[in-house]
Amino acid sequence: MATTTIKVDGMTCGACTSAVEGAFKGVDGVGEVAVSLIMGRAVVQHDPSILAPAKVAELIEDCGFDAEVLSTEEPQRPMRPSSLESPGPRLTTTTLAVEGMTCGACTSAVESGLQDAPGVVSVSVSLLSERAVVEHDEGIINPEQIAELIEDRGFGARVVETKSVPATSQTSTEQASPAGDSPGHLVTTIAIGGMTCGACTSSVQNAVANADGVIQFNISLLAERAVIVHDLSKVSAHALTTMVEDAGFDASVVSSEVQEPLSKKKQQLNLSIYGLRDAASAAALEETLLGRPGVQSASVKLATSRLQISFDTSVIGIRSVFEIIESAGYNALISDTDDKNAQLESLSKTKEIQEWRRAFLTSVSFAVPVFLLNMIFPMYLRAIDFGKFQVIQGLYLGDLICLGLTIPVQFGIGRRFYVTSYKSLRHKSPTMDVLVMLGTSAAFFYSCFTMLMAFLSEPHNRPSTVFDTSTMLITFITLGRWLENRAKGQTSAALSRLMSLAPSMTTIYEDPIAAEKLADEWNSAESPMQPESKLADDAAAVNQKIIPTELIQVGDIVILRPGDKVPADGVVIRGESYVDESMITGEALPIHKKKRSHIVAGTVNGTGAIDFKVIRAGKDTQLSQIVKLVQDAQTSRAPIQRMADLVAGYFVPAIIALGLTTFFGWMFLSHVLSNPPKIFQMEGSGGRVMVCLKLCISVVVFACPCALGLSTPTAVMVGTGVGAEHGILVKGGAVLEAATKVNHVVFDKTGTLTTGRMSVAQVKMEPHWTANDWRRRLWWLVVGLAEMGSEHPIGRAILAEAHSEVGQPGQDGLPGSVGDFDTCVGQGISAVVEPASSVERVRYHVLLGNATFLRSRDVSVPAAADPDSVDAGVESAASTSKPTAEPSGITHIHVAIDNRYAGRISLRDSVKDSSVAAIAALHRMGIATSMVTGDTLSTALSIAAAVGIPSSAVHASASPSDKRSIISTLQLNGDRVAMVGDGINDSPALATASVGIALASGTDVAMEAADIVLMRPDDLLSVPASLSLSRTVFNRIKLNLIWACLYNVIGLPFAMGLFLPFTGFMLPPMAAGAAMAMSSVSVVVSSLLLKLWRRPSWMQVERLEKEVASGAIPANGVSRKTGWWTPATILSDHPQSLRRRIQGGLASLWSIVSGRQTTIREDDGYVPLQTVEPPV
């Protein structure tokens, strides 16, 4: 499957993105499609053998949008047969679509139903994509039987794909499992132009989402993009764009790429090549590149002068690729840079703002004279009304001038409305442009008809034309679109700033080895905060060069001067400085950086000069991951948005029907009623037909689905941007909605509530290891060697202590070798070690872990050596025989050497400064808290008591599967659970929880499994802050939707003339057009008010700690009574209680309108939450 990225111009709202999505419906070879309204991009996965990228763009253009193919990443194919492949048993991988999963408990049910089945090797279930991938032996169990097992669990199941995989593909040798053996799933992003509201997104979705081969579909109105996961063998990227274009929108493929496993060190680039002459030179360049080690594939397209190359970054760097191309006589530029610039322009709506501004100014220059001739002069300035002169009998000068001035507006500026309306109607997915086209056309052609009748029939009186209605409507609509796009550009300001953080150029040393040698000789303790000149003098022997940031590769030594932006992630090797990280983490104060400090791309260096070694570059940097996460958040629609888009899809036909009903209804009533409203009898009204027509036009142009469609995506865009500025990364609108319902937060202990920086507090060796100093050092050497392969904080602390004990502090390794290293996550490790200090070669089998782990390996742990008198498994503090917690929170690690108990290492961890305040803030918000940990019960109880978590909510000695079970149990009890963690052992629980919250200091696996990522891991108040932000954003979404609905519900009766019999007032079409334009602007401005969000003033460490100390916030979970009330509660309430309920209701209303959280004191309605019993 290929992944094609297309730039789409012309999309304005959700209806446009829906139309683009709809264009891909039913097109063969197309997999997933994703459309981003804000970015103006579409990403489409497709089969290039069925649908070419150019055809993908044509599909979007057929929808009425401009589309341009930016890049196409084709699936990798092996250049030659692998010599490593050998005959052997072949496994089968089956992908199934699973219907009916709603939460982590459902995925757990599917997994548990398959894991124990005979012949099943592995199971992976995704809730979001609604897919289950099962690796199995088809000779034992076939795909149909797997589907039956899932159906037996109560879910719908359908086999999507089955393919055989060589057994050798399970190894890490890439040649044994070459990519591209068979078509797979592609992620294609398509930029869609022309979407204006939810009806447009619904149109695109209807056209694409149900197409054969489309696996997952997401569309964003604001980002102007659709992201589609699709099966290339069934539907191609080109077919997807054709579907979008057929729906009436412009579409272009932004990118189309195969999702690679995270473990592969592969980089894929799209380069623009300059100097290619013919097909022979292109083939020669391909041959040259493929002959170099590390280059996996290379494809040159002569027509576009584009090179797509994939290479192993551990073998060859990006600069080496450029050197190969330049040595062949060509020049190259990274195409992704052009795409980034285009995205920035799309985010800021520069092009759209200029287009609509130009259209408005042109339109108003024609509309004002028409308005004067048609309205002002005949009614108020009759003395200078030269339009009343007849040119010929029945044709008046004023009418002819108005006709001439209206035609350029109606068919010049209004041409885009006709084009998009035709395409949307052709695919039965009408958008707001249809309403504009109908309203203006009715006014224009009716005016032309009245002029013709005045010319042909007696007595040739001056006709009642409404050319001013047509021109003024288009003028107001273009004004509204101009203001709307200006406001939209502000909604993505945070993302634009993130994308602009990286510098364009950077300075590196030509010889990184020599530069690193100089850095090793530099001692920060002797000469802290060295000035730039000193560093430059010391490094004079090493040449420097300035390169584009895109060409930085891992291992480079980068020079940072005062005020420079950091171009990549790395580790400081020389110099000291203060670095401003506020744009990444939200931390206001500069952070001191010295040797061995980590530094991230996009931050700004202070007054010092430093050198750092690059450890992550390009798309792997933390900044790039943040940008990617925020971009992806825009294509993830909240359930409430899907409902709004569904309503918007039916909105246009309903309004057309309502307009026709208004016209014929008033025509009938004006003839039947003996005393119709006065406006039907007034001389200047133009007669009954004219009044009815104006009422009909007012109805058609007043109703606007754009406001409904923009309510959710604009709030999500601003909310996710504001969150990113505060160090809170939210993965989409669905997460925001889920976070508002959270009523229980479960914390991991190590590295989450605690610092994770363990230190050895006590060591107790068995007597036979303390006989002499040599055996004591050997004990530490054996233990240290065993922990060399561990990344756990406990393992690193033990290794550091081992270095110190054996007399090698600060060294990278210990003398000896390690083999057969194995980790039992959450329990312990085992390894076979051979110390180099032994006189003879002696190997030791070492076990380190908790007592349960050692006992499971048949090691007898003395009762006196185990302070935690609990059985193996998950233990709860609610146990009747719970031990006394150690006040210091000691963690015990037991050691066994050659299956004999050898001693115990006790480690201490410290609680984070913000942990107590974070727990108190959650309790104040009415959210219960729990803690799960793989540590012992005594340690868990100690930490829980220190931070304020109830002892009844502590779960100790929990393995990763136990943590997931605990989360599932809480969910089955009715709780909406958020899990906060940072390690690999937390990832199953993070994926199972209603909302997974990961700390950025943790592992990539945990961050991948989480829904919210916190960039300031030491500030746990970010957890309640993220929930507060989610509530604020979702309240804003509800306010926007209520406003959009009320706008139409209240305004439409006026437009229909329902109050004519009582007031004699009717809404003129021009006023209706202005109101329609302002409805979208008002919703976007409402969302922009979210930029004012700040953490609640009470959410401060010092203030919350004081409230805890005074007892204002109980340690057990508390809940706030709702501020809304019913008549029954009002009648039954005590006057003081009634006052509190009214105050609570007004506070809740104010929090929705203002976007700021309000709080109620404990005596104003806090009640204890019912505690949840821990699972057995």
TrEMBL record:
It is found in: Endomembrane system; Membrane. It comes from the Eukaryota. InterPro entries: ATPase_P-typ_cyto_dom_N, ATPase_P-typ_P_site, ATPase_P-typ_TM_dom_sf, ATPase_P-typ_transduc_dom_A_sf, ATPase_P-type_domA, HAD-like_sf, HAD_sf, Heavy-metal-associated_CS. It is an enzyme of class 7 (translocase). Residues 163-183, 863-887 are annotated as: Disordered. GO terms for biological process: copper ion homeostasis; intracellular monoatomic cation homeostasis. Its EC number is 7.2.2.8. Residues 2-68, 92-158, 186-252, 267-333 form the HMA domain. Keywords: ATP-binding, Copper, Copper transport, Ion transport, Magnesium, Membrane, Metal-binding, Nucleotide-binding, Repeat, Translocase, Transmembrane, Transmembrane helix, Transport. Residues 863-874 have a biased composition (Low complexity). One of its GO terms (cellular component) is endomembrane system. The chain crosses the membrane at residues 359-381, 393-413, 434-457, 463-483, 647-668, 688-710, 1041-1064, 1070-1090. GO terms for molecular function: ATP binding; ATP hydrolysis activity; copper ion binding; P-type divalent copper transporter activity; P-type monovalent copper transporter activity. Residues 165-176 have a biased composition (Polar residues). It is a multi-pass membrane protein. Belongs to the cation transport ATPase (P-type) (TC 3.A.3) family. Type IB subfamily. PANTHER family: ATP7, ISOFORM B, P-TYPE CU(+) TRANSPORTER. This is P-type Cu(+) transporter.
